């Protein structure tokens, strides 16, 4: 992985998402989505002009994350009421935390045979 890739949040997010089994990138009008089949597990989005990732989250997780750090986490428009959580990627995110968030979302939507492959 090049230093330039590591410095670009969208490029680094793409590498994280596409490293998951059978994950695919699907271009949408507002930015790329990352999917297993037809199910989205992550979206690369701009929120308030800031680069962010939106992920599916287990029940109650959104409130815990947003409550703990509202400067970094937020309820994304349209998807927030469904429990999805947004994480801002500008300002030097904790990439281990991004990886954990994306993997958890992946496990929530992936078939069992694939979800079981992710630690």
Main pleated sheet: 6 strands, antiparallel
Radius of gyration: 13 Å
Counted by DSSP, the helix tally is 5
Q: Strand percentage, roughly?
A: 25-35%
Give the N-to-C terminal Cα separation.
22 Å
* Average pLDDT: 91
Shape: globular
Order of helices and strands: HHEEEEHEEHH
Query: Low-confidence segments, ≥5 residues, pLDDT <50?
Result: 1-6
- Number-wise, the strands total 6
CATH architecture title: Alpha-Beta Complex
Number of domain units: 1
Q: How do the strands of the widest beta sheet line up side by side?
A: 1-2-3-4-6-5
Helix/strand/pairing class, anyone?
alpha+beta
In which range does the helix fraction lie?
Answer: 25-40%
CATH domain class: Alpha Beta
Question: Any idea of the CATH topology?
Answer: Aspartate Aminotransferase, domain 1
Model description:
The chain is an alpha+beta fold and 119 residues long. It has a single domain (3-111), classed as Aspartate Aminotransferase, domain 1 (Alpha-Beta Complex). It is built from 5 helices and 6 strands. The protein has helices at residues 3-7, 9-18, 61-68, 95-109, 112-115; strands spanning 24-28, 31-36, 39-47, 50-55, 73-74, 85-88. A 6-stranded antiparallel beta sheet has the order 1-2-3-4-6-5. The longest helix has 15 residues, at 95-109. It is globular. 29% of the residues are buried.
